[in-house]
Amino acid sequence: RVHNATSFMVVQAGLAVLLAKLSASCDVAVGFPIAGRGDPALDDLVGFFVNTLVLRVDLSGDPTVGEILARVRQRSLAAYEHQDVPFEILVERLQPTRNLAHHPLIQVMLAWQNLPWQHDGPVAGLELGDVRVTPLPVDTQVARMDLVWSLAERWTEKGRPAGIAGAVEFRTDVFDADTIRTLIERLRRVLAAMTADAGQRLSSIDLLDAAEHERLDAWGNRAVLDLPSLAQVSIPALFAAQVARAPGAVAISCGERSFTYRELYESTNRLAHLLSDHGAGPGQRVAVVIPRSAEAVVAILAVLKTGAAYVPIDPGVPAARLQFVLADSAPVAAVTTAEVRDRLDGFELPVIDVDDPALAGQPSTGLPLPAADSIAYLIYTSGTTGVPKGVAVSHRNVTQLLQSIDGLGQVWSQCHSLAFDFSVWEIFGALLHGGRLVIVPDDIVRSPEDLHALLVREQVSVLSQTPSAFYALQSADALAPELGQQLKLQTVVFGGEALQPHRLATWLHHHPGLPRMINMYGITETTVHASFREIVDADVDSSVSPIGVPLANLA
Fold first, then answer.
1. H runs (alpha helix) in 156-209
2. Which range marks the domain in which residue 94 is found?
3. Which residues form the AMP-dependent synthetase/ligase domain (predicted)?
4. Residue 413 and residue 465: Cα distance in Å, rounded?
5. Which end is more exposed in the chain, N or C (fewer Cβ atoms within 10 Å of the end residue's Cβ)?
6. Predicted local confidence at residue 393, as pLDDT
7. Is 338 helix (H, G, I), strand (E, B) or coil?
8. What pLDDT, on the 0 to 100 scale, is given for residue 384?
């Protein structure tokens, strides 16, 4: 009454708030039927004159409940003034994009009845002289829209309000019954909040109850999010610690070539000094244009040791993308190999060969360690939605991510392009935990059978794969079961695309217990991975890709 709003307007506003919060939209349209008997000449005429009106509610600016009611009231009264305009004419004039999958303009309807005979007992039935009228529900078994709320005010025998009752009709290919029950409860909660305090803002209306908040805390892995993080250090600092711990351990294997941690440390120091002589340092960028190889890892670590950020560029990219990335990132130098050096012809920047003979004269001692908050790398997105953008990630972000890894000295595979941030996880997951990094050549990556054999031969314990690549590997494993039993895999990490758990049934059958199958989710901006979920046998009954809970210390 204070806001001159009817019960219908309050329910309209509540439904608009619910839809806005669920859809993260501030522009909500809801349809509602109206009797269409505004002309007194129709009072004594029997017939169906119902029309559909569209109420479009603007919820921008985080309005208060009172302001929302005022907007709904204004729009409702304006709609009533034009209630005789047929809905079909409205659609014809507005010409919305048509889709056979849903109704034009609106997909949600609110049907409101305020006559007491509609939903109450016989005592409240409508009487026409000696004729008694009661409603006869007609179940068409077909949903008219995605969602139809048919609500009515209830009344006592004495004509006093007794709440709201009704039913919700829904498309079963869009919603299920449990979801609808949840929506009903949330609408009730919204209406209770709105009537309790008309001064509160839209953003403060909570759709969730205490039990749902507790469930979110459990799903959100809040316990690990609150754990204190380890000391913030740079990638070279953690690598140096592994060198000191086990200098003679093998750090990289690539075909017949290998580096111990000491050899890798000294090689990267020499290249870092040479890069510094060409301007590499804090705040600068250095392009790394090298195929996946041991030399590529040397180049990356060397760039990081100068304090600069590395910009990985796959040598096989089209010339236009190569030109764009170099122009946009503005590196002070580029590191490459003789094999692909010609890709950099015509660019005005120093080009350093990772095997340059001048490296022999450079000192093998380390440079000052970079700050943890300095940029470690700049990786460019695919550009499928427009112009590629460079995503800058700090040392701290990488080292925090890798705190989630347990287990030292494992054997990691490196199967992905350096320009794909999955490679960051592979390279530093191994080298910052004293592991051995097995660099897989391109021809083997493309052959599931050869990759299967390499995993056995190198005794790889941690394999990171996109799901589609793993499905192919799974097929190769099924064709060579005896070889598959020799695998030493402890963990398989999925990333880069949605996982289909039901497609893992064959692998889980042949390899029960181990390896652990971990589905990880994240985007380049969140530093490779942000959440994880271990796949269990029960998951094979689902086609949904479970992304699990946040990794520790990444909130």
1. 177-196
2. 7-207
3. 239-553
4. 9
5. N
6. 96
7. coil
8. 64
